[in-house]
Amino acid sequence: MQSLGERLQEARQRLGVTTREAADVTKIRSDFLQAMEANQYESIPLTDVYKRGFTKIYAKYLRLDEEKAVADFNTHHSVRAVRRPLDAGADLDETAEPTAVAGLSMSRDMTVWLVFGVAALGLVLWALFS
């Protein structure tokens, strides 16, 4: 089974265009197109949303199935696809997790209420002693 990059390169060659010509039409840098064809998406210094968009644009230009190309990118080249298993929980919302404050475990909501309470107490004390 061919990799995404191999399919992109083969389709470009079948159309008889160079990466420079493809870059001119798609407005994607030729070095990015070369990295995509070499399956070296990690060498493109952009976030996955750009890489995914470039994959879709390039596949459409090459008359390939855009959705399949994007699905292959998501499966094999996105940050989540290449993340090590130990990092798998890293995309969880950290603000929902309890945070330790001086040995006390507090949720984000509890912290917000505490801040408001301290501010209200400060206003009351200021009003009493001014």
Explain how this protein is built.
The protein has 130 residues and is mostly helical. It folds into two domains: 82 residues, 434 Repressor (Amino-terminal Domain) (Orthogonal Bundle), CATH 1.10.260.40; 31 residues. It is 61% helix and 5% strand. The chain has a two-stranded antiparallel sheet. Helix 4 runs antiparallel to helix 5. The radius of gyration is 25 Å and the shape is rod-shaped.
Task: Fill in the keyword field for this structure.
mainly alpha; 130 residues; rod-shaped; 2 strands; two-stranded antiparallel ribbon; single chain; 2 domains; 434 Repressor (Amino-terminal Domain); 7 helices
Describe the secondary-structure layout.
Layout: H1 4-15, H2 19-26, H3 30-37, H4 48-61, H5 66-76, H6 79-82, E1 99-101, E2 104-106, H7 108-129
Antiparallel strand pairs: 1-2
Helix pairs in contact: 2-3, 4-5
| Major beta sheet summary | 2 strands, antiparallel
Q: What shape does the CA trace take?
A: rod-shaped
Overall CATH architecture of the largest domain: Orthogonal Bundle
Return the domain count. Answer: 2
SS-derived structural category: mainly alpha
Order of H and E elements? HHHHHHEEH
Task: State the end-to-end CA separation.
Answer: 79 Å
* Cα gyration radius (Å): 25 Å
- Helix coverage percent of residues? 55-70%
Do you know the CATH topology of the largest domain? Answer: 434 Repressor (Amino-terminal Domain)
Class of the largest domain, according to the CATH hierarchy? Mainly Alpha
Mean pLDDT: 83
DSSP E strands, number: 2
| CATH level-four homologous superfamily name of the largest domain | lambda repressor-like DNA-binding domains
Q: Which strand order spans the largest sheet, edge to edge or round the barrel?
A: 1-2
Q: What proportion strand?
A: under 5%
